[in-house]
Amino acid sequence: MALIECRNLTHVYLKGTPLEAVALQDVTLSVEAGEFVGIIGPTGSGKSTLIQHFNALLRPTGGALRVSGIDLANPRADVKTLRQQVGLVFQYPEHQLFEETVYDDVAYGPRNLRLNEDEVGERVVESLALVGVDPNRFGRRSPFSLSGGEMRRVAIAGVLAMRPRVLVLDEPAAGLDPKGKEEILGQIRALHQAQGLTVLLVTHSMDEAAQLVRRLVVLARGRVVMDGPVREIFRRAQDLAALGLGIPAIAELMLRLRGSGLQVSPDTLTVDEARAAIREALRWN
Rounded to whole angstroms, how far apart are CA atoms 148 and 59? Predict the structure, then answer.
């Protein structure tokens, strides 16, 4: 059974009122344990609405949704257990920091589980280490004394301290400088590889998607319009352009080179791949 299973999932805001708005319509989607899935789409396509269903911040107004075996169409669903298993990190998660120290902020969730302080401490140290923050150096500091990238990593550590099976990230690199973006995206990649976490990443950056994910789900007007391997989706440049979406910069370069007569692979997504493809094409040109 898939870890996340949507069948004709529909969500209508303010249903039955003059302000009724359909945000999701007949979304059918499944995610297996251990997958790294990107979710992209134009503004207003339903991305944030969709991911808020995965830990029951929103409930379906139609269709079926099961997450980790929990039926979220059932009003008696065990939401507390679900939220321990699905960690949701919103844009600018550092705005959710509020404790006096980094240690206490990361410990907040485990303490709410009524764990003993030894286990809380173990989870804090483990989670900070996972995001590349030294617990000995930073644990007693105020989270508000950290850089933007450090604050974001601490906020993600607070979610990881709950030991979720699924990590859902909404634009995790938004607003960071290039160095901060590189660090946070590298940590997310390492988490997936080291922990085997199931990761869902909402992003507006096609370059981020190309670097990180194996599979892309494309939303438009509240529906899934594409779903497949990342290279396969980015081959459909014209279809993506019709939705107001682009392709990664490297893929765009490869298309231009092909248009000028250089026979490079259209599936190239990274700098290393591009370098090898151009060398190969020049050798045979």
Answer: 32
Q: Which two tokens stand for residue 74?
A: 């059932």
**Residue at token pair 């508000």:** 144
Angle at 231 between CA 280 and CA 279, to 5 degrees: 10
pLDDT tens digits for 201-251?
999 999 999 989 999 999 999 999 999 999 999 999 999 999 999 999 998
- Integer-rounded Cα Rg, in Å, for the chain is 21
Residue 226 near residue 233 (C-beta atoms within 8 A): yes
Angle, vertex CA 77, rays to CA 55 and CA 124, nearest 5: 45
> What letter represents residue 50's amino acid?
L
How many other C-beta atoms lie within 10 A of the C-beta of residue 117? 10
Q: What is the pLDDT of residues 76-120, one digit of tens each?
A: 999 989 999 999 998 888 888 999 999 999 999 999 989 999 999
- DSSP code for 43: T
Spatial separation of the C-alpha atoms in residues 262 and 13, rounded to whole Å: 50
144-191 pLDDT, tens digit each: 999 888 999 999 999 999 999 999 999 988 888 888 888 888 889 988
